[in-house]
User: Fold these one by one.
Assistant:
Number 1:
Amino acid sequence: MDSQPPLVSPPRLAWVIAVALTGLLLAIFLGLPRGDGFTPGHRTLLSHIAVYDPSTGGVEQDRDLLWQDGRIAAVAPGGSLDAAGGLGLDCRGFCAMPALADAAVFLSLEGRYPGDSVPAGPEQSLRLQAASGMGGVLDLNASRAFMHLARALDGVLPRVRFAGALFTAPGGWRALGQAPWDSHIVEVQEEDDLYAPWSRALRFQDQAVFASVEDEGRDGLSIPLPVLARLGALAHERGLPFIVQANHASKALTALDAKPDAMLGPLFNLDEAPGLPQAMRRAGCAYIPALGSVLNAYAPAPLGAWLRSFPAAQALGATVLAQADEPQAAGLWLMHWTRQGIDPATVRLAAKGMADAGVRIVFGTGSGLPLVFHGLGAQAEVALLLQAGLSPRQILESATLNSHALAGLEGGSLRKGDPADVLLVSGDPVRDASVATHPVRVFLGGVETAP
């Protein structure tokens, strides 16, 4: 007896299943939250809240803070504004302040580090940054592929600006065996190197230019001053900030002739060049202490199988678990701080000396470097700056007005027309700057972001 033919033949059944699965995936995709930020007309009112102004260092009590479509619409006496159908929150007992910006992060460093300093993808790093109060970051060293990946992210995340490739002397920083065209690094020793065809794709398509004048075993600037000065001129011709990293105050003093907008100097010993702060103030060159990045140089020695805490985290009452069972990495960092011949107290004194001389301080953490974790890096930086003797006002001004300005980011204040990048904090930022890196709620572009 002949069997009945199947109602649906195998090839046709496979086709039906494929269509059904495609429809299901499409429905799921369309149903996911897209992080659009807001719909036109979206309003949020924080009523009866204190508002911190970094330009004055003061707090206005009992204010209403209203934003619409992602921008501050009004700040008025408490109880005088209406949400008008939008979201209204009674915020008595809380303080609103502008989200911070970190002008020295590394979102995509490669290599094996002690601990998960750099999460697997940019989204996780940026969420950790948001949870510590950041509304924007400047990534100082990213590959072109990573930059495209980060720019394609969807959702409510801190805004990212990129310095792109790091300019350095040959032999410095680039991973062993890595070809120049595969690198995050542009190696320069002569001015012609700035125009090399292989580096053209990495240059000046971003929002900042970052160069290091440090290199193992070299005295003086590792990038010759005429080349460094030409690099700075090219950056300024394009309206880009020019940031130079130096470990030695004497090198930084020489590099000032290249007219950098900011000097990244976490290992400065001002005894080498006592006149550096005054020279930087006269030149209008800002200072990025990035004291938290010193943690990767001053890790306890010897490092055990588990490094359970580091000094800045202890100061915050936090515990950081970082797997550090790689003898090669432990030896590298021990060699690094031994070679510098300075201690953490010295770099804290340098930060205080810069601030006392009137140099504009710009907040940057070095987050993403070994042992400097995204999120915790900001908390460590504030703790170290407080230990250095900077006032809460100096620290918060560095992390709002100054860091936004250097990175070319909107924000840094809560005035009409500013982006609604708002932190709700529990505590008084006038007395304790650390409350800014422990926000209760974070709104970026007017939308609450996930912790």
Number 2:
Amino acid sequence: MVGFTNNTFHNSQILLSSKVVRYASWSSHIIYGSAIALSIASFIPSHWTSKLVNVALCPLLFAVSNRLDRLALYAEGYGSISEQQSHRAYSNWLDASLQPPKREIQVQAPVEQTAPVKFADIESSLKKPHLMILGETGSGKSTICKYLVSQVNAPCLIIDPHASPVDWRGFVVTGSGRNYGDIATEFERLAKLMQLRYEARDKGISQFEPLIVIIDEFPAIASSLGKGATDTVKLLAREARKVSIRMCLLSQGAEVKTLGLEGEGSIRECFAMLRLGNFALNHGKSLKDKAIGEALENSDRPAMLDQMPCQLPMLSDTQSMPVLPLPKDYLELVADNAIAPPSSALSAQSQSQALAPVFQKIVNFLDGRDWTKDYEIKASIRDFKDANTPLPELQGYLQFLETQNLLETRSTQRGSLEARTIRDKTA
């Protein structure tokens, strides 16, 4: 049996995985056809014992065909990983073989003025509980995420409000089309899953099925769902690793306020921070080590892992991840519909009693008025005016109140928001 060393597949495994896929597919077709033939044969007049044998063999053959299809799908995922690693090893060998020959006589030893820059291994980012990838649009965040997650070989849950049909092929994406209601429900389900696993852990269960939660466009989610989304992410960041739940956050902003984690520096330590493109260049320039900044400027694809530069693997835009079945306890939560959406029967008054003061003041300001623009709210409420609150943050507050059925908002031509209080909606 072919094995692997240091998480690197042997070249022969490419052929092995392709053979497994091919033979499993052929066998599945043959067995499936035999099952169909036996099913038809059971309708032909014959002795009742023959019909009984045919009826007994058909489900067995269908089950064997199904298992072979699953084996082919599983082997196909390993085939893509092993082929990619084989190509990378061949590229490294080719680069080394094309280097000019070493001189036999060295006239003068070079004087090393600065210490060589040490590059981090990008796969070492998997050692931390969670991963955060920062980069502008088109920098390859999703491709790098797919590559790293494929090294873990665990089932994935995708949360992406801006997903297109080609972004996560083969996966069910939660929140696509800016469906933030589904994303809020998914966050509640994940918190419930972690709680159930900790209750099982208290009873002596130590092994759980792994689950990786990929959250793309997290600043947009935090802006739309407000404190509820960031609190759930903070909770998962602190405690989910012990029950085999890991997160991978993708973001276009590196500031703590943009990520909704302001004042939570300890939580940032739970994440391996992978910066791409201009984010890596700007962070390298902010460090005291000039050699790191120069190494990043000379790189075709600059990247930094925490405080060290790293080299990105050669990946194609069609990078894929193995599609593995989700954990059973998660599927049970989905089937039981344990997390229900907020009830619309609650009145605005009963909901507003549990609001934070910053939200309550907005509701009080809009009560009894018609449509009011967000910059007028900022100019009229002293807390926002004195604190110099940016308009995007105020718009996030208004959108959160809209999800609580307390306000109605609409966009204006200048990109601003107008809001008004919902009155007698449940009457």
Number 3:
Amino acid sequence: MTRTIRKVVVWSALAALAVGLTFFGWRAQTTALASSKQRGPGQAVPILPSPHIPYVGAPHAAYNSLPPTSGPHVPQTIAPGVYRQQVPDEIQVHALEHGHVLIQYGPGVPRADVRMLEQVGRLHLNDVVVAPYRQLGGTVALTAFGQLERLDRADRGSVEAFVVTFAGRYNHGWRR
């Protein structure tokens, strides 16, 4: 390869990289801005600073919602799917930060409703985490980054609307 061709290839690669970084930086910035102004099901929850903490249970600032919708979190996250054990808050927040929606239910939610919530989770396999959350009692909580909807009963239409509206809205690029 001649020296001139190498220069052209290098400059072309650098230009492509700059365009890509500009595009993805703009996309992440606009996605984050959109997340703070999103309208839809549930209620917007003020977005907290979201620093990484070293481990689950490490001391950190308090969350401003139950379950959390933003705030301190560990560097690890969880893949979308159906889980039978509660997901720690510090891992939930990181999943939300990657654009996933969490569907969580308390121990008092009827088993038939839990099965329906799990079905919805399986229909949206790349976007949803379904898990129990003992602090919810007999209710259901739907969370996205900066958004929360609490349901007194599991209503499939409400759950689907929340998932469709908020899945992927704050995405750092990681997908399963």
Number 4:
Amino acid sequence: MNYEFKPSFDRRFKKLAAERQTRAYEALNALMNYLDRHIELPPGLGLKNWKSDYWEIRTSLKDRILFKYTDHVTFLFIGNHDDLRKFMKKK
């Protein structure tokens, strides 16, 4: 599986505190291992379909990662649920 990180994701990720970045890395790693068929989907990720090819996972109770899943995975956004909703309204 090919993975891509959009600048919108990178910008927001860099602004996160170190502990939130660590949780995001762990969630990304679990998702990638699942998509590459190495492990089962951990229940704590809370994989959810937003609409068509847009999906989200949880990194914590507060933070979410939005990605587009087609023939490859494009990570678009990281932030809280309200920020993710605002981002999706622009799509």
